[in-house]
Amino acid sequence: MTGGRPRRPAVEARLVREAAAAYPADAPREAIARDLAARVVGHLRGVAAEASDPAVAAFGQLGRAVLPCPAVALASDPEINTLAEFIEARVKSLRQRSGWTLNANQDRADVEVCLAHVQVKLAARYLKILRK
């Protein structure tokens, strides 16, 4: 029996490479990974809104069907589950403050911190994919 983390879905690497193909050939992989992660996190905001509103979810699904985009797919694909990265960061933040409730401004700031954490994590993952 082997230990360790499960492998990332193959679709993630395919989508990262597909998205990277749209950048100039001479663009540094690090810059591509950072920019792609920023774009994915931007779309992740919409995915998070979809999780709490069925009407927003319906429009999101329609938009993805009409205009497929690798960055949107990286943010919304259930197999990749990027939303789980954000939720994990939010739960960690909640635990660090011992469950204390935040006011609206503090909550918005916490969301931004968590999204920034996810963005750094995704950029590192995407860079690793692009280096293979």
Provide a descriptive summary of the structure in words.
The model has no long low-confidence stretch (mean pLDDT about 90). The chain is about 75% helix and about 0% strand. Helix 1 (about 10-20) packs antiparallel against helix 4 (about 70-75). With about 130 residues, it is mainly α. It is built from six helices and no strands. The protein is globular.
SS field, number of helical segments: 6
Radius of gyration: 16 Å
Please state the oligomeric state of the protein chains shown: single chain
| Shape verdict | globular
Roughly what fraction of the amino acids lie in strands? Answer: under 5%
Question: Can I get a quick summary?
Answer:
With 132 residues, the protein is mostly helical. Helices cover 74% and strands 0% of the residues. The two termini are 26 Å apart.
